[in-house]
């Protein structure tokens, strides 16, 4: 995943962001409860979670590193169509058997309360440590703004769009500036509404629509 046309985030202004090392690649994720990280199911692999990071190539004192105890990909995830592309990670406790320590650098982000659709044009943000453009990698957190597309206009790009997906992008850019790292959150009015899923080549990007999955999320995190 990558952010095109983004800018470097103010350090630690997105304290819910998690950097996921997945073998030799990486994904984004976000802290939804002290022991739980949400990400995309297509990020499955041997994951190490880094919370509280800004520059992931530095051992910043704010960082908290956790292994994963349990992987909960959505049982309906389909890698060919990206249907149900979400996963919950139960983080392994730290050296003193503690969950993530919440502080200025590490915070949870709320999930939606109900399942209604976001109004078309809602302004949202995505952040990630992906590529800024085709050539330039970034080790610092970047962010960009996107807007929600209507279902009707998005189906023209993605005919197999279903209720578990939502589209967002910048209307005025030809290049896709709508992707953070795979697995990172689409944040609208300070609520995590989506998970970066697919659609890297042209706008809009497709995000897993979190509000469609609240019963499964609650059951899994019980």
TrEMBL record:
PROSITE patterns from the UniProt entry: TRYPSIN_DOM, TRYPSIN_HIS, TRYPSIN_SER
Domain Peptidase S1: 3-222
SMART domains referenced in this protein's UniProt entry, alphabetically: Tryp_SPc
Gene Ontology annotations of biological process type: proteolysis
A single MF term (Gene Ontology): serine-type endopeptidase activity
Pfam families: Trypsin
UniProt entry keywords in alphabetical sequence: Disulfide bond, Hydrolase, Protease, Serine protease
PANTHER family, per the entry: KALLIKREIN-RELATED (PTHR24271), PEPTIDASE S1 DOMAIN-CONTAINING PROTEIN (PTHR24271:SF90)
Protein name: MCT1A protease
Organism of origin: Probosciger aterrimus
Source lineage: Eukaryota, Metazoa, Chordata, Craniata, Vertebrata
Gene: Mct1a
């Amino acid at each position: 995943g990558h952010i095109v046309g983004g800018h470097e985030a103010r350090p630690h202004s997105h304290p819910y962001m998690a950097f996921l090392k997945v073998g030799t690649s990486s994904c984004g994720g976000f802290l939804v409860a002290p022991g739980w990280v949400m990400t995309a199911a297509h990020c499955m692999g041997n994951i190490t979670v880094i919370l509280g990071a800004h520059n992931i190539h530095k051992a910043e004192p704010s960082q908290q590193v956790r292994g994963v105890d349990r992987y909960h990909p959505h049982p309906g995830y389909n890698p060919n169509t990206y249907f149900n592309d979400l996963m919950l990670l139960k983080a392994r406790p730290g050296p003193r058997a503690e969950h993530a320590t919440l502080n200025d650098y590490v915070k949870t982000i709320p999930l939606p309360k109900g399942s209604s659709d976001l109004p078309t044009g809602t302004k949202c943000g995505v952040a990630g440590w992906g590529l800024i453009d085709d050539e330039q990698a970034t080790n610092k957190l970047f962010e960009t703004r996107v807007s929600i597309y209507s279902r009707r206009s998005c189906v023209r790009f993605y005919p197999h769009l279903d209720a578990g997906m939502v589209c967002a992008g910048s209307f005025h850019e030809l290049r896709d500036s709508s992707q953070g790292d795979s697995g990172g959150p689409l944040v609208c009015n300070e609520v995590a509404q989506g998970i970066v899923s697919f659609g890297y080549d042209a706008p809009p990007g497709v995000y897993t629509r979190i509000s469609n999955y609240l019963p499964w999320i609650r059951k899994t995190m019980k």
